[in-house]
Amino acid sequence: MWVYFTWDAGLVHAVSPLTPCYYPIIIVSALWFGLTGAMVTAAGAAGAYLLLTFHFSGGDELALVEAIFRQIIYLFLVALTSGYAMQTRKGQ
Questions:
Q1: Exposure of 79 by Cβ count < 10 A (0-12 exposed, 13-18 middle, 19+ buried)?
Q2: In this structure, are residues 34 and 87 in contact, taking their beta carbons and an 8 Å threshold?
Q3: 38, 80 in Cβ contact below 8 A?
Q4: Who is most buried in 10, 12, 41, 63, counting CB within 10 A?
Q5: pTM of the entire predicted model
Q6: For the segment 32-85, what is each residue's pLDDT rounded down to a tens digit?
């Protein structure tokens, strides 16, 4: 909801300045639930972010592709890294 209500509040007036708040949520889910939890949380955050992008861009496909390359890839990289680190740590 924070991301939704602050969408045009950033310096560029497009993406919310609170979009990076997805990363700590993914890391915490990796701490609690491992790789699976991190990936599920990243998928949920990616879905929510794409829905917001679709809503605020008026259905522009180029905006969705740009969102995937600028934000979504990093959500899954954080999920993979933190989830793998936690599984490795629990295995020791």
A1: buried
A2: yes
A3: yes
A4: 41
A5: 0.79
A6: 999 999 999 999 999 988 888 888 888 888 888 888 888 889 999 999 999 999
| 12 within domain boundaries | no
Instruction: Give dist(CA 40, CA 59) in Å, integer.
Output: 25
Q: How far is CA 52 from the centre of its chain?
A: 12
> Could you identify the residue written with the tokens 């701490």?
31
Q: Name 4's Cβ contacts closer than 8 Å, sequence gap at least 6.
A: 16, 52
pLDDT at 92: 53
Q: How many domains would you assign to the chain? A: 1
8 found inside a domain = no
> What's the rounded Cα separation, in Å, for the pair 48 and 34?
21
